[in-house]
Design a protein that fits this description.
By secondary structure, this protein is an alpha+beta fold. β6 and β7 form a beta hairpin.
């Protein structure tokens, strides 16, 4: 059996500039961090005496004889790509729900590529893992997704990711004092709204407009990346909330689909109860909302939300580890 462990991410600033439709013409940059919540994927050789050749366990249970009959798109297409002829049992478990803006689809792809590469005995370094994952999602699955989540999940850490016009990218670990990041972490709350959405469906409503009517929105969103760096350097963390709020306003202007009446109700209530800023994570439309709330006010802030059904506060910590193989005892025919 082989098990991969891959972190979810929180994207702070620059989202939208990581779509190839934008950065191949203009370049782009984002600031994000991985957190101590993960997707675990396991694979084991399945002996030939079963009636099925593949057993896939996710939100469904699939037992099939042929790869083409697998319903899970990413697993089906990746098994084709890797040309693995062994019978396999693959299990997927996540600490957080899918379709929630935390990067789960890309995190899954990164973890699965890492897993299957280990299975065939061809381990992969972080940059290649990120590149393969981006190519797989955008070119093979043909999903309308950006390129930051795959990189964040592959590398891990609190980073500035810069995208070049030629398609390359660089990852810079922000040289911020540990106590600054620790304080920032304490002042952030991750709230699950219980609203599921599909990032692909939301993104495709505005990605083609990035070079035209939405260009000024992306340019403003990009400016927040440099301002965030400056805030972290001068340890002026209360300004971080204000920047999140301004970024959220631009994100809504970029695409009205990122919000709805329920999200607006939650967000506006939070701003009245002590948050100085926040944003819906990922493509928007539901999932998680990140709020900046000074730590000394958080207990009262969380208590004030008791009348909102389904809202869940998810404690988390920043994490420096990217996708890894945490268990590997595969032998021939095992």
């Amino acid at each position: 059996m082989i098990i991969s462990k891959t972190p979810y991410r929180i994207s702070f600033f620059g989202g939208g500039s990581d779509y190839p439709e934008w950065y191949m013409e203009n370049g782009g940059k984002v600031i994000s961090t991985t957190i101590d919540k993960h997707i675990y994927i396991s694979a084991r050789y399945l002996p030939p005496f079963f009636k099925h050749k593949y057993r896939i366990v996710w939100s469904k249970l699939e037992t099939v004889k042929n790869i083409k009959d697998i319903n899970h798109n990413a697993i089906r297409e990746m098994l084709k790509l890797f040309k693995i002829n062994d019978g396999l049992e693959i299990h997927y478990d996540g600490d957080l729900p899918a379709r929630s803006g935390i990067g789960s689809s890309s995190v899954f792809v990164v973890g699965l590529i890492n897993l299957l590469r280990a299975y065939i005995g061809k381990n992969i370094e972080k940059k290649s893992l990120a590149k393969e994952s981006i190519y797989f999602e955008q070119k093979i699955l043909k999903e309308v997704v950006g390129s930051q989540d795959q990189i964040a999940a592959s590398f891990g850490g609190f980073n500035k990711i810069s995208f070049k016009k030629n398609g390359n990218f660089t990852v810079k670990s922000l040289s911020t004092k540990k106590k600054t990041l620790k304080k920032l972490n304490k002042n952030l709350l991750l709230i699950y709204t219980g609203i599921e959405r599909n990032a692909h469906d939301i993104a495709k409503t505005y990605v083609n407009k990035l070079q035209s009517s939405k260009k000024n929105n992306i340019l403003r969103i990009l400016s927040y990346v440099d301002e965030c760096e400056a805030i972290l350097k001068r340890n002026d963390l209360d300004d971080f909330g204000r920047l999140l709020h301004e970024s959220w306003l631009d994100k809504k202007d970029l695409n009205s689909s990122v919000t709805n009446n329920k999200i607006e109700e939650i967000y506006n209530f939070a701003m009245k109860k002590g948050a100085t800023g926040g944003k819906v994570l990922g493509a928007g439309g539901g999932g998680f909302i990140l709020f900046y709330v000074p730590y000394q006010y958080q207990k009262r802030f969380i208590k004030s939300f008791k009348n909102f059904k389904r809202l869940i506060n998810i404690p988390f910590n920043f994490n420096n580890e990217g996708s890894s193989i945490i268990f590997n005892n595969k032998k021939m025919g095992n």
